[in-house]
Amino acid sequence: MIKASLHLWVLLLFLVTPRVNAELHPEQQLLQVIDAIQTAQMQKAEQQLKQLIAREPEFKLAHLLYADLMKVHANPLKTPGMGLEDNNELQPLLTEVKNRWLASNLDEYNKKIPSVLTRLDGNYLYALAVDLKLSRLFVFENFNEQPRQIADYFISMGRGGPQKEKQGDLRTPLGVYFVQSYIPPQKLADKYGAGAYPINYPNVWDSFNGRTGYGIWLHGTRSGTYNRPPLASEGCVVLPNEDLLAVGGYITLGQTPVLIGYDLKWLSIDQWKQQKEVVSSLFNQWLTDWQSLDTDSYLRHYSRDFNNGKKDFTHWVNHKRRVAKHKTFVSVETSDVSLLMHPNEDVMVATFLQNYTSDNYSSESWKRQYWRKEKDGQWRIIFEGGIDAPSMQQLARREL
Description:
Layout: H1 8-12, H2 26-38, H3 42-55, H4 60-72, H5 90-105, E1 113-114, E2 117-120, E3 126-131, E4 136-143, E5 146-154, E6 157-158, E7 161-162, E8 171-172, E9 175-178, E10 196-198, H6 204-208, E11 217-219, E12 231-233, E13 237-238, H7 241-248, E14 257-261, E15 266-267, H8 269-291, H9 295-299, H10 313-324, E16 330-341, E17 347-358, E18 362-373, E19 379-386, H11 390-396
């Protein structure tokens, strides 16, 4: 985190990415101002800041830079934020400068994919990946079943930081989540801005670990506020209203994944393909063993901590052995598979449409599994259950 005594212009000297002078997103306009400062074009920076503030009068970071520029007219700038009173508002703005700068200059984002997006079959149109360390939400298009970054936005997280554990800790959860619904602004308090997208926290893995709380949303900002500082919510992921509306255009309710992590790992295309092959083979081996009617091989894929809310491991094993005795064949086909890795823990979440046929039973249903890498290094299923989500049925029939 940037110290209050850090010279702001020293930080800005490292910002070398060229910007195009055009009708840009407010953040890009801000970075254009910083480029002007970095090249000692103070008059140009001042004019650009005036335009930005006129466009977004509640953009506090723009006001911070403008106050500093005004101070330079009278005295050399010795510390950042000389144009503001030294109060609790200054430090969050300096952290915001740092996070916006980092996100605009890390080369690892170019032509790379977060490791969390392991596999998305063709019907999953988009995915959202949030890096709380960088205060950033990345939008990925599923292009020929390979994620491709198409947008990114500044976000705020909970005042307590990352990794929610209990209700009221003001922390933002880490994990694999899915957008569940949309709440329009007219049904919300003003502080939620242009709307809200609730996610499924706590999910199965959260509950398995005793994590509590509720009401984790992607939402906007109150009127009179452009954006919140990096640590400012009660645990939600918060975007400027304009950006929330843009992100909403990529969301399919019940289906769009939201991967929330701290310091995401990014892979080259070749590394990502290798990971996809390894993880897909794990999932496919489970299917092969199920269809083989070799019950012992099939059950080796399940953790002794398995619990689906109705059966624990012992009851699950006994049930599967009883069922297998009456089968002469089993055929299981899966489609619309997503295999997503937890950003900060050894957990995989599999979602898929399952078509099951045997000599005396057949069914089609959406399933979700949670796999955990256990102490012996093997991946095993700790939860398996159905998904009650009508939008998933609509997804299965959608043509790209």
